[in-house]
Amino acid sequence: MKRKKILKFAVLGMVLGVGSGLVIQNQQVHAKTDVLQHKKVKSNGVDDAVYRQASASELAQMVRDGKVTSQQLIKHAVSQIKAENPQLNAVISLRESAALKESAAMKDTGQPFYGVPILIKGLGQQLDGESNTRGLKDLKDNKATETSDYVKKLQSMGFVIIGQTNFPELGLVNITDSKLNGVAHNPWRLSRNTGGSSGGAVASVAADFVPMATGNDAGGSLRIPASFTGVIGLKPTQGAITGDSTVPSTVNFADARKISDLQTYFKGMQSSEHPELIKDAPADLKQLKIAYSTKSPVGTKVSKDAVKAVQQSVKFLRAQGYTVVKKDAPVDGKKLMKMYYTESTPTGTDANKMIKEKTGKNMQFKDVSPMTWALYQADKKQTKQSEKFVTTEMTKVSQQMTDFHKTYPIYLTPTTATPAPKNNDPAYLPKYVKQLKHIQNLNHKEQIQLIYDAWLHGLSKTPFTQLANVSGEPALSLPTYVTKQGLPLGVQFEADKGQDQLLLQLGKEFQDHDQLHFLDSYQAGK
C-alpha cells in the first residue's frame, strides 16, 4: 500500500473560525437576512420552478424532447449562480463560454444526462485549463494541464461542466473555508457552514443551482455537507468508481436531490477494472437485519437532534417491516482516528512539494492552515514500521466490519452528531494553535496525539463518517430530519463492500415515502 495514495485530501475533522460577519470571496459583509434569498433571473427560455424541481435525468429528457435546449439550461444555471452565489460563495469559477461551445458540439448518443449542466469540485477532479490550486495561496494561479479520468467519464455521460465549487485547503477539514477561497455559506442558514470538504458542491445542489454536483470523500467529504445542507450523498465502495484506487483513499462521486439520479450515475461511473466490487441489490431488502447506533465512536457528545433523527428512521423502517436492533460497530473509534491521522501525514509533504516547485521555498506556517503545517512536520518523523503497523490495523478494521455485516448487512447512525456549525465556531481551542506551530519539537507519537487532541473539537461534530473510508465500505447520507431551529440533519447507512446499490435502493424507499427534506420543500411547509 503506497503512502501517498492513502487518505489524500482527507477530511480530518475540524471547524475553522472566520471572525464576525459573513465572508464572501474573502470580503467581510453583513447579511440582512440569514436565509438564502432566491433572485429572479431572466428565464432564458427555462421555467425556473420546473428547473429547480427537475432531476438531472428529467432535464436530459426535456432536451431530447425539444422542450428546452442544453444551451438554455446552461445560461439559466449560470444566471442563477451569478445572482445568488454572492450569498453563498459556493461556486468559485464559471466557464459559460466553454460550456456553451461544448454543448453545441455534443451529439445525442443516448447519454443519460445529455446536455445537463453540472458543477465539479475544484479539488481532485482536474479539467484541462481550469483552476487547480488545491486551495493553497501559493498555487492560486495554477491551471490543470490534463483532464482526469473521472471527469472524462462524467462528460461521456452527457454532462456539461459549467464551473467549479468551493472547498477547504487540501480538503483537510469537515467545513469549507480557506485562506484562498473563503467560506461557503449554508443555504439554510447563511451564518452556518456547509460542511466539507465538498461544501461548495453540496450547497450548489441545496440552492438548486444544478440538480447534481460532484465531490470526493476521504473521511466524510460528501456525506458531512449532505447532512449539514440537506441533500443526498453517497460515498461509494473503494475502487468501484472510474479513476479511484482500491486502497483506502479518496473516492469520487456526487451529491443530488434525487436518488434516481445517483442510481443512474453510479451505473455509468462504475470502474470497468473492478467489476467484482459491484453487486446487485437483494430482491427483498426487508430480509436484511439493520443495526443502529447513536453512540459516538470517539466518546464525544451526540446532540439530541441527531439521536432523534436516527430514532425517527428506526421507527419508519420498522413500520415498513424491517428488523432493526441497537448494536454498535465492533471498532475502537479512538484508535481508528489515530491511524487515520497517521496515514494522512503524507498530505502535508505533498503540499510542501507543490509549494516548493512553485515558489522555490518550503511552506511557511503563516501561509497554510495550522493542520497542513502539522501534517507536514509529522510526516518527517513517520517510520516504515509505523506505516506497516497502521496498514495492518486498517486491514483489521475492514475485516471487522465485513464480519459485522454477516449478521447486520446495514448499519445506521447519525451522519453528523450536530447540525451545521456556525461560521465563527473556532477551528480548535486557541491553546492548540501555538502547540501545532511548534509540533516539530515533539516525537512522532506525541505529534499524532496532538493532532488528535487539536482536531477533537471538530471531530466531535462528525465522528461517524470516517469508518466507511478506513473499511472501504459504501455509506449513504439521507436528509431525513430538520431541527426546530430549521437546520437539516442526515442519517447514514453503511453496508459491506460492493453493496452500493443496496444502499441506493434503501434510499429510494425513503424518498418514495416522502421521508426526505430539502430546503425548498421545507420553506414551502411541505
Structural description of this entry:
By secondary structure, the protein is an alpha+beta fold. The protein has two domains: 284 residues, Amidase signature (AS) domain (Amidase signature (AS) enzymes), CATH 3.90.1300; 116 residues, no CATH class. Helices cover 39% and strands 13% of the residues. It has 18 helices and 15 strands. The N terminus is likely disordered. One of its GO terms (molecular function) is transferase activity.
Secondary structure layout:
Layout: E1 22-24, E2 27-29, H1 48-53, H2 56-64, H3 70-88, E3 91-94, H4 96-105, E4 117-121, H5 149-156, E5 160-165, E6 185-186, E7 189-193, H6 199-206, E8 212-217, H7 223-229, E9 232-235, E10 251-256, H8 259-269, E11 290-292, H9 304-319, E12 324-326, H10 333-344, H11 346-359, H12 370-380, H13 384-407, E13 410-414, H14 430-437, H15 444-459, H16 466-471, E14 475-482, E15 488-495, H17 500-512, H18 519-523
Parallel strand pairs: 4-5, 11-12, 11-13
Antiparallel strand pairs: 1-2, 3-5, 6-7, 8-10, 9-10, 9-14, 13-15, 14-15
Characterize this entry briefly.
The chain has 526 residues and is of the alpha+beta class. It has helices spanning 48-53, 56-64, 70-88, 96-105, 149-156, 199-206, 223-229, 259-269, 304-319, 333-344, 346-359, 370-380, 384-407, 430-437, 444-459, 466-471, 500-512, 519-523; strands spanning 22-24, 27-29, 91-94, 117-121, 160-165, 185-186, 189-193, 212-217, 232-235, 251-256, 290-292, 324-326, 410-414, 475-482, 488-495.
